[in-house]
Amino acid sequence: MASSHRLNRRSWFSWAKKDTKMHNDEATFWLSQFIGKNLRVHASDGRIFGGQMKCTDKDRNIILALAHEYRAPAAEIIRKAIEESGNPSASVPWNSRYVGLVVVPGQHITKIEFEESTLPGQKSAITL
Amino acid sequence: MADPLIDHNTASDPVLNNVAPYVAPISSHVHASGSNAQATTSADLPLRQSLRRSQSAYEPRVHDITEKFTRASNALDVGQLVKDDYFTLFESIGAIEIMDSKMDSGFLNPGETLEDDYDTLTPLLPEEIIGIMDQLLCYEMAWHTGYPLSQTLFTSVYIDKLLWPEVKILEQAQFYRGTIPDEKRPGPLLQALRAYCLALIKGCDFVIAKITSRDYFEEEDFCTHIYNRVLFMEIPMDVFLRELDAAMEVMKDTDLQINDALRSSIISRLALRKDLLRALDIDLPLEHISYSWPPIHTGIQKLKATHQLGQTVPGSFSTKMQRRLASTVPPRPIVELEFVDALEKLQYLATDCEEATRFVKLPQDPLEYQSFLWSFASRSPAPLSYARSYLATLLFHPGVLESAISLPLLDVKALVFPASSPVLDPSNWTYSPPRNALLSKPPRLEYAMLIDDFADRCGQPYMDLWIALGQNRCRLRRMLTHVIAGWDILQSDASLADETIASASAALGVAEQVFENPLSSWAYHKKLWMLEKILLLGFELDVYLPDEFAGQYLFLSLIATRRRDLLFKIEAHYNKYLSSLVQARNFPDAQDVEDALPYISSLVLNATGTAALSLALARFYIVLLYLRLVPVPARPFSSEQLRYEVRMKPFLGFQPPEVPPFEDFAEHVKPYGAYTSPNPGFDADIGNSESEIWTAIEDALKSAKEAFARVKKLGAQAARAEGVKGVWGKDVQARLASCVAAGVAVAGVKDAVLKRGEEGLGVRVEIPESGEGKRYAEGWVVGRVVKE
């Protein structure tokens, strides 16, 4: 928490925004916080993989353990559900399945999300 | 108004327990049940706070870290990994690469859709129904041979529809979910297909239940993975039978306009499915099992005759189904098994299971059981996993093994305690121990306690042996090498018990009537028997290379000779005991002992024959090695001694030692020095038809033939293989045939050697391959001499 305060404070300065190049030590430290934590990795074909991060490298390849694959329902199915229920906001479940240990190659990653699983009031140990 | 989140229990700790996602329904609930006014007044402000917090606990906060993650990973060095310390490179190899079409089963090519637009409600032709049913049967049998469901049955769109989304009651398991308009409802043909599929799925559930219920099974033979689908485990079988009956009724209905040939072939498929489901039932009572398999055979014949009526339906099976299954493996193609082969597999399955049901009717005798297990494991083609589990379930069925006397003890009795032996006298169990523990126990009580202890002690090794006998041939050999180690320990434990038996017998003055070291002799005999089987299985499974045959047969001969000598001692004891009984004019007991003698004689002759035949073959292969008629591969990286050690490794720790020292062994295998440069004595001996090198082989063959012929004459009853008489007879016959074949081969080589001219022997030796019916007996490899 303390370091995030510092970052926030630094964000007052205009030069802090431009500092896009990270130092290797800093990057290693920052990335290693996510080891064993739940990440949601969006792949370029729209699927989302949720699982524990095990490993990453310079090419942003990410290895997830105990991963599940989530896939948005096809447009066809959504249309059908809406037609059948008559409700334009009818809910259609995503397809999910267990896929285990996967590696998502860096070039296919469109978005990475961190799923924070702290209890309310508990301080997060992770610097975002 | 009462605070919406107040509840009696949460008053004490509202922060943690309030979990409502939104307010309105809860507040109405609270109103209805009457809220706790005290709590309401005491906590106004803090509870509002807690509401906000509790919501955030249930919605995990998700942060987008893409940008910073990208920057951070860019800052890493080439080759630098940020990883879990316990995550190894080895593990990472198992990761599936996403977006790689070869590995990622969820990968879609551009324009490809996740699912085929195959509509399971489209009416089908009767021909197509037959086609789909037959294809399902093919996949079912492919699954039985070891392929996973994901590559076989679960590729069916119809099966998938029935299983997913999961249903709670069978009525909901349809080719659709929810409600559909009446005109779209499946017709009678689709209903028949549904009943067929349901019964098929339930059958798979039974198969998995049977196989996994065994103490020992391995995934390498059979894949029990069900990919997070539930195969109607909870639903009882009669529901499925009813579905099948109803479908058959519908099919028989004359209102249904359909060609009669097609009608009857669909009905016969449903009927076969019904018979099969009944046979697979895990709760079928023992008295019915023998009737459950024969109907399958008639069903198979009908299917065979009508298969050509069927028509395949493209799209009704698809590899894309794998994308919907929980899968940690790359996508794999559908396994194709021809219909003819599938029927053949089903036929074997039914025959093997039918054979297994005979186990229940065997006389209650562990030796009969052992013969049965051995012959079942030797069946060719090898029984499928299911059939083996089927037998194993019967073997350990409480209704089968119900026995007043411990089964291992019956085995001991048959070998070393002839009838009315004082050690097993029932009156021994009537003594009670002396009140004063310091006083010595009466010797008869000593007997009883020792025997009880021993029966307990050998339970586990005995069970291990039986479990091993229930495996396929390769695993049987591997497991026996472990089981035998347990028997080695049992033997040394037994020798301690034997000392006490000896002192008790001396105290009673009946030492003459008790065989010396009975229990350890019994364990030793069993151990040697297993050792012989391990070696013979080695030949059968082509573990040994042709140039090792000489050494391994020599070792086998050594072991069999030891067993024979032990049996000779036992036989002598029997005869002595018998004559003493006759002298004492105790004719009933004498008769009992005499009745037990054929078993011993059969064992003696078997051991004699095995020892002689293996000796003959060992010598024969030694001659072939000297004559360079056996291929010797180049082995630049090992020495003969090391190879010998590796071969003998499972047996090196035995007490008494069974494996001769290498020098000893080498001397016997190479009587004339190195094979490449034999000493001059060899040429002289080999050229002389009367020399020992030839006569020893011929004599050994002759005595082997004689011994096996006498085994045959004594019959299956004496060998305690009455339950598998036919197989046993064939086995003995095969050994006799091996003796004859060996005689012919030896004569062929001898002839060639005696007549050899300048250009060499003019013959070569072919080693018949295993498992192709080219050997008379799989464990006895007799090279065939062919003129060049």
Average pLDDT level of chain B: 88
Count the E strands of chain B: 5
The number of helices of chain B is 28
Rg over CA atoms of chain A:
19 Å
- Widest beta sheet: strand line-up of chain A: 4-3-2-1-5
Low-pLDDT stretches of chain B = 1-57
* Cα-atom radius of gyration of chain B: 36 Å
Structural class of chain A: alpha+beta
Q: Count the helices of chain A. How many?
A: 4
Termini separation of chain B: 109 Å
According to DSSP, the number of beta strands of chain A is 5
CATH architecture annotation name of chain A: Roll
Biggest sheet of chain B, open or closed, and with what strands and sense? 2 strands, antiparallel
Largest interface summary: A-B, 57 and 54 residues
What CATH calls the topology of chain A is SH3 type barrels
DSSP helix fraction of chain B: 55-70%
Stretches of chain A where pLDDT is under 50 for at least 5 consecutive residues are 1-7, 14-18
Structural class of chain B: mainly alpha
The largest sheet of chain B has its strands arranged as 4-5
Largest sheet of chain A: 5 strands, antiparallel
The total tally of domains of chain A equals 1
Which helices and strands appear, and what pairs or packs with what?
The complex is a heterodimer of chains A (128) and B (788).
Chain A: H1 2-10, H2 14-18, H3 24-32, E1 38-43, E2 48-57, E3 62-71, H4 75-85, E4 95-104, E5 109-116
Antiparallel strand pairs in A: 1-2, 1-5, 2-3, 3-4
Chain B: H1 14-17, H2 24-33, H3 37-42, H4 45-58, E1 61-64, H5 66-74, E2 81-83, H6 89-93, E3 96-97, H7 126-144, H8 157-163, H9 188-212, H10 237-252, H11 260-280, H12 286-292, H13 294-306, H14 339-357, H15 366-377, H16 385-395, H17 407-416, H18 443-457, H19 459-469, H20 473-508, H21 518-540, H22 549-583, H23 587-626, H24 640-648, H25 662-669, H26 680-686, H27 692-718, H28 725-754, E4 763-766, E5 784-787
